[in-house]
Amino acid sequence: MREDKSLLISYLEQQKMDDSLIHDVVEFREKYETAEEVRERVYIPDMLFYGKDILEMSAAALLQGENLLLSGAKATGKNVLCETLAWIFGRPSYDISFHVNTDSASLIGTDTFIHNEVRLRKGPVYQCAEFGGFGILDEVNMAKNDAVSVLHATLDHRRRIDVPGYARVRLHPAARFIGTMNYGYAGTKELNEALVSRFMVVDMPPLSEETIRFLLKKQFADVKEQALRQFTGLFLDLQAKVYNGEVSARSLDLRGLIASMKAIRSNLPPLSAIRMGIVNKSFDVFEKEMLEDVIATRIPSSWTRAEIFEG
Ligand SMILES: Nc1ncnc2c1ncn2[C@@H]1O[C@H](COP(=O)(O)OP(=O)(O)OP(=O)(O)O)[C@@H](O)[C@H]1O
Ligand SMILES: [Mg+2]
Q: What distance in angstroms lies between residue 78's CA and the mean position of ligand 2's atoms?
């Protein structure tokens, strides 16, 4: 626990988080215990969020007892941020994915027969309430309105689960909910107004040159400077094309770029790897050609692994 705390403080200091916020976060962690049975849900994520301003805004809102909604384009780090926040606050986290079949029972719980009696099998929202968890409402805009309407009393000042047929449960004081939603390209489903009004909303910015460089360097300590510059530039070029509406957002995916670079490191020819990670995510011939052109200006066809990685 003490080790975790020093790791936390060094991470927050690296991010240059405001000192008084760091102080308040540490105080929050020390104030709330975590029950033994959910302790395994408190963990340090594989990847930590990078970005001072977003981190500060999010932490400040959570400290005030608010719930957060992260809205932004694909792969802007929404889930990485959720996991990072749960760790920063030292709370057990619950992933709650929303889709068209999500209903109130899957959120709160279902009645089941255990030893000949009816018992409630507690759903993730119920457990969050009970243990002071951080509930990640992933892609919350994909849910049907009648499913999310059961969350209204949970997410506003009432802070309780209030559903006919269930015992009323008050939220543990450390419980928070963080919603994510994709926004900014075709196919976005709007979130209803009543639900939005229950969140503080963080608009996730597009990735900056500095952020992309930092993230790629962190993933690939052995990348050569020249290649790093070209891959960063490639992502920025794609981002600009998407922004101008020249290509769809399908190919703009840092996950895809990272996966391509991993494949190159295990010796796949660079252009084939990039095709798999980026170009082939588009299913439009003209768009594919355009993507190939962008890539050709950044990554010479003569390049092999040796031009990209040391050793
Ligand atoms: N600011 C950031 N800090 C750390 N990682 C980031 C950041 N922005 C993007 N990433 C990277 O983007 C990838 C995708 O992150 P994540 O899954 O959190 O995105 P998302 O916004 O939830 O995407 P989606 O909308 O597709 O669900 C991660 O693997 C990570 O490498
Ligand atoms: Mg996500």
A: 6
